[in-house]
Amino acid sequence: MIQRIKSTATATFIYSLGNLSVKLTGFILLPLYTSTLSTAEFGILGTLEVTSQMLVAILGISLPTAMLRWCSSEKTQADVQSVVFTTFSSILAILVAFNLVMFPFSAGFSQLVLESPDYSRYFNLLFLSLSFDLLNLVVLNLIRFHEKPFFYIMLNAVKLSVILGLNIYFLQVLKMGIEGIILGQLIGSALLSIFSLPFVFKNSNFHFSWPVFKAMSKYGFPLIFTTISALLLSMGDRFIIPRLLSLSDLGVYTLGYKMGGIINMFILQSFQLGFLPIAYKMYEEKDAKRFFSKVLTYFSILLVVAALGLSMFSKEIIILFSKSNSDYWAAFVVVPLISFSFVIKGWQYYFSLGLHYVKRTSYNAWIVMGCAALSLGLNFLLIPAFGIVGAAITMILANAVMAVLFYIVSQRFYRINFELTRILKMTVTGLVIYGLSFFVSESNFWLGIVVKALLFAAFPVMLYFLKFFDPAELMHIRQFANSMKGRLLFKQNNS
């Protein structure tokens, strides 16, 4: 059991490096964005990002996800290669048709999304960029299926380097603003597609299977509504805030969301990449349910620790990333709320996997669509009353309702005895420590950081005295500590 959990952690960590290489671009460039873009322009950029993700979800018909499931079920290499070709060629045809139709209407689309036709050029570039992103999603899922994490990292590292260099050049030298950011992403995504084509050809047999396409479409179609609803649930406020408040408020909220979203991008999404292929391959094994239960506990520890750290140091982090433009500093107030909402989202995602195991994805669609409607209603109610804080509160409430519903429904079809008491104990402990951090004086900046760091370090100590860890876990912790101590002594003796 421990060995399987370690292999899952290793796969998650390796894939997180690839995911990190892409997501790191935005964080490296945040000081550049906040110094060259106004809060209103940053709000427009955030809206474009959400629009791109929604179009990817619609156009993909969830075929990249379905491809993973079908490839895992096929018995022969020829059948697997046929699934790959069917998926890739279907998405390519959809994207060609989409671009031919949408390019003439980009001004109207700009009017619909940003209430102005002046941004049509942004959308033309965005349509091309998201097309390559969707094709790359197929490729990266194929790499995950063949368990080649280092190739995954290499491709994403190339994309990172290109986007990073081009963004700096387009923003600092050519002063292209938002257009330069989108163009840099387009070129980076296109290069990834070109470099990965040999791998796609190697793992395809150029046989299109209509039965497979129909079956995957039937499986993936409900997931379109699930994915879109999930995006509306977590990002729909990006369309509502500028209409109820202003684009400047949206820019401030977008920065806070990106900071709190570190948990989503670097932990939750990385976990999804590394864990799902493993879960599909072993869910019918004898000890699978115990394995799934333990993984949720350790996954929750990672989520809560990350949320606690981000929440306690949110103000310092925001000032660091936007020190040249104080208009962004107000974003720190939403970081703790958004961070905690992603902890709940992690639980929600994990509970929903039970429905994927038994191919009951229609339930996913109904639950997420219902919670998306709840989220939209709460946003219209809370944003006028509490501003951008209302949007963050909405995220917590909607994700909490969705997590409960997924738990109840998935347990009916694939029951797992999760360690909910331990998870609750750990979460409450984290909230208590965060509450104590409010009493830290801000009169001395560096002293406040030191005191908060000590409070943060007290988290595992408090869990120990609350008897959170079981004997086997304590034994492995001691073994790890002794191993690290031995390595330090060895280095000291040989230095």
Textual characterization of the structure:
The model has no long low-confidence stretch (mean pLDDT about 85). The protein has about 500 residues and is mostly helical. The chain has helices at about 1-30, 30-35, 40-60, 65-75, 75-100, 105-115, 120-145, 150-175, 180-200, 210-235, 235-245, 245-260, 260-280, 290-310, 315-320, 335-355, 360-385, 390-415, 420-435, 445-465, 470-495. The protein has 21 helices and no strands. The longest helix is centred in the N-terminal third of the chain and has 27 residues, at about 1-30.
Summarize the structure.
The chain is mainly α and 495 residues long. It is built from 21 helices and no strands.
Map the helices and strands:
Layout: H1 2-28, H2 30-36, H3 39-60, H4 63-73, H5 77-102, H6 106-114, H7 120-145, H8 149-173, H9 178-202, H10 210-235, H11 237-244, H12 247-260, H13 262-282, H14 288-312, H15 314-321, H16 335-357, H17 361-386, H18 388-413, H19 420-437, H20 445-465, H21 471-493
Amino- and carboxy-terminal Cα gap = 38 Å
Secondary structure: helix percent: over 70%
The SS-based structural class is mainly alpha
Largest sheet: none
pLDDT < 50 stretches: none
Multimeric organization: single chain
Number of strands: 0
- Gyration radius (Cα, Å) is 23 Å
Supply the number of helical segments. 21
What is the residue-mean pLDDT, rounded to a whole number? Answer: 86
* Helix and strand sequence: HHHHHHHHHHHHHHHHHHHHH
Provide the β-strand percentage band. Answer: under 5%
Shape: globular
